[in-house]
Amino acid sequence: MTSNPLSIFIVGGHGKVALSFTRQAAARGHKIFSMIRQPEHADDLPKGSSGSVEPVVASLEQSSVADIASLFTKYAPSVILFAAGAGGKGGPERTKAVDEQGAIKVFDAIEQSGIAKSEQFRRFLLVSAVDVRDKNKPPPSWYQKPDLERSEKTRNAIGAYMDAKYAADKNLSGRTSFPWFVLRPGGLLDEPGTGKVALGIHQSLVHSIPREDVAATLLEVAQLPKGQADGLMLDLLSGDNDIPSSVRDAAERGPAIQYDCASYPTRLARLASVGFLQLSTGYRAEPTFPEMLRSSLSAGVCLVLATLAAVCEASPVFYSTKLGTRRTAHFAQCQAPKTGSGNPLAGCPSGTIFVSKTHPAARFRTISAALSALPDNGNTGTVLIDQGQYHEKVVVTRGVTPDISSANSNRVEVWQSSYVNQSDVTSVLHNCEATVLGVGNGGAIGNSNFKAYNIDFAQRQFLNGQEVTEYQLGPAAALCVQSSNASFYGCGFSSYQDTIFVGRDSQAFFFKSIVKGMTDQLYGYGKAWFEKCKLLSRACGGGITAWRGDPTDPLVGVYISNSIIAQSPDASKAKSMVGRCHLGRPWNAYSHAVYLNTFMSNIVADAGFRIWSQATPNFDPKLTRFAEHGSSGPGGNTSGRDTELETILSDAAAAKITIHKVFGGSTPWIDLATVKNSSSG
Q1: Pairing of strands 466-468, 437-439
Q2: Is the pLDDT of residue 642 over 70?
Q3: Which helix (H) or strand (E) element contains residue 450?
Q4: Residue 84 φ/ψ, nearest 5 degrees
Q5: Residue 523 above 80 pLDDT?
Q6: Distance of alpha carbon 389 from its chain centroid, rounded?
Q7: How far is the C-alpha of 253 from the C-alpha of 446, rounded, in Å?
Q8: Which of 70, 156, 194, 530 has its CA 20 to 30 A from that of 260?
Q9: Cβ atoms within 10 A of the Cβ of 593, count?
């Protein structure tokens, strides 16, 4: 028996998983309120257990939200489990009524009753299923032939059920007023449980799991302390790990969720309210919805976790619980909101440095000062960044180990106001001295492994004390990468001229990031790959790209893949941008720029690319390499392209252009797990 019995309300108490859950929970001394449709169903509920089991006769389909809310108020449960399901039986109408509308009734009832505000309430549990996703989007890229066959077979048999589950998951994902957890079991078996599971990402649909093990996993989650495992959506199959340790491991790592902001429901990442920086040696940190800025140090790893209130169209992907020799760090409590006069460092590692623009407990007011305070002694150091805007230039010359997190709406912004005065002939200010974020300092040795997650870097223009947005004052990079390997995930980069610079001997990878600018948004003479990014123009000047090629390395260039080109929401209103933005122009005759499978709005010029200028074309048909393949959208019609400037690639030629071929060899500085596990869309 447990020393701390729970009061658990089960919706759909007569289902097989629910009955198994009731038996196991009652055996541990928990009090169960089992909502059943028919009075005779009470005969099937377990009896004689250590805990008590009380039937609650009510129809989910016929009950109103107010009816269900009154039950929650009456029984005051600490955990609510939704295990109801038509299982595809009774036709599409009943399936929708139970699995979708019934679930949403319960969500609404939790909010209406106010039960989640009570001290005893821990969490809401929802039983979903593997492969629940948007059927109109392509399946995840890791699906193999057996997975595709299983997915098709399942949808042919119980498509209405899968659609209803998807709609319920989508609705729940936007709820922020109560803590929730979703379990997505595989095919259910009526056989004894093994007590061994695979909880998290396992990249297979062909394995099943006994209902007893599903119930046991739900019970372990129900028993977790308040505040743990909130926001997780985990797949569950039979595996090799015992259930209690699997659940504890998932909880210790916090809601480690990746988002594919193109294929799944709107999801509010609500649990993190402050940023975080971890400097450690060889650990893999997987905190609660973090926004991470990471850089490199020979003695360890540097992670800056910024604030997050992320809303994105997303598909959840979860870490494997089989970590091998890797260890995890639990930062959920450290990042969790602290109400009132609570200690902002509660739950943080000893010695954590707190950065805040306003909090009286903060030791530092700037990120740069906190970074400078970290000792180079190889020990773990931690910086917690309060939410807000930080007006400063941040240069990080320390490196990282991989970590996975994703978000779409960032609440920490690092901004600067500086630009190169091109009219001042005495000025020797290099563009990278006027940048917001510098990776490497321009010397022969930079960062070998830099990663940033979900932080916005912005250049703001001010003239005579007023912010200027309608035109550019001069080159002002938001990011400057020099002699380094760097990758960015869910980051924002905004400026007006020369937004992102990737210099010589540098490699940069951008994933699901947003770039805003007016002229030559992407420029440099290293290697840069933009995957599933948004390139948003504030005005049309020069080209979207301006690259300098290298005659000794034909792979030097800029590559835009599966991305979107469109007008920025804050674009200048002075003149129309339709048909005025060129895909790129050559910084030298060896310039190399490629667009693959990219959506182009009507701002893209019919000709596609252009020369540098009439006076200095910088174009040589034998040397300059501009290319497109698979362009779509109003600006993606290649029939009007200037074929003297660019090549429309064949399928075969485009297939040869890959991330691995461009960067070559081992790429530990790219978080391939995030890229691979993110559903295409």
Answers
A1: unpaired
A2: yes
A3: strand 450-453
A4: -70, 150
A5: yes
A6: 21
A7: 31
A8: 156
A9: 28
Q: What are the residues whose beta carbons fall under 8 Å from the beta carbon of 463, sequence distance 6 or more?
A: 473
- The residues near 568 (Cβ < 8 Å, ≥ 6 apart) are 516, 536, 537, 538
* Token output for 577: 């941008």
**Which residues have C-beta within 8 Å of that of residue 666, sequence separation ≥ 6?**
none
Angle at 383 between CA 377 and CA 385, to 5 degrees: 160
Percent of the chain past pLDDT 70, that is, above it, reads 71
65-75 helix and 103-113 helix, angle to the nearest 10 degrees: 50
Contact present, 274 and 382 (Cβ < 8 Å): no
Residue for token pair 């707190």: 354
Q: What does the DSSP assignment read for 176-201? A: -SS-EEEEEE-EEE-S---SEEEES-
What gap in Å lies between CA 475 and CA 432, rounded to an integer? 10
Q: DSSP letter at 325?
A: T
N- to C-terminal Cα separation, the chain: 48
Q: Is the pLDDT of residue 330 over 50?
A: no
Return the closest-CA partner of residue 451 out of 278, 310, 293, 217. 293
Q: What is the rounded CA–CA span in Å between residue 631 and residue 366?
A: 43
Place of tokens 């955990």: 79
Tally of CB atoms within 10 A around 396:
25
Residue 181 in tokens: 């957890």
Beta strands in 469-533 (DSSP E): 479-481, 485-489, 492-494, 500-502, 507-511, 514-519, 522-524, 527-531
Residue 599 is encoded by which pair of tokens? 């959506």
Q: What is the 3-state secondary structure (H, E, C) of 581-640?
A: ECCEEECCCCCEEEEECCEECCCECCCCCCCCCCCCCCCCCCCCEEEEECCECCCCCHHH
Q: What is the pLDDT of residues 186-221, one digit of tens each?
A: 889 889 999 999 887 555 677 789 999 999 999 999
Specify the higher pLDDT residue, 497 or 603: 603
DSSP, collapsed to helix, strand or coil, labels residue 37 as: coil
| Mean pLDDT, all residues of the chain | 77
Q: Cβ neighbours of residue 199 under 8 Å, at least 6 residues apart?
A: 217, 234, 235, 236, 239, 241, 243, 246, 247, 249, 250, 321
Pairwise pLDDT comparison (345 vs 337), residue with the higher score: 345
Given a cut of 60, is residue 423 above it in pLDDT?
Answer: no
CA nearest to 205, candidates 250, 246, 164, 148: 148
Structure tokens at 211: 């209902």
CB 490 within 8 A of CB 528: no
What does the pLDDT read at residue 384? 73
d(CA 216, CA 232): 17
- Please name every residue paired with 394 in a beta bridge, in sequence order, or none if there are none: 437
Mean pLDDT over 291-320 rounds to 26
From 500, 484, 366, select the one nearest 437 (Cα to Cα).
500
Residue by residue, what is the 3-state secondary structure of 335-363? HCCCCCCCCCCCCCCCCCEEECCCCCCCC
What phi and psi values does residue 472 have, to the nearest 5 degrees?
-100, 140
- Domains of the chain with CATH codes: 7-252 (3.40.50.720), 259-321+328-416 (no CATH), 432-681 (2.160.20.10)
- Cα–Cα dist 272/412, whole Å: 12
- Between 154-168, 277-291, 550-564, 608-622, the lowest mean confidence (pLDDT) is in 277-291
Q: Is the full-model pTM beyond 0.70?
A: no
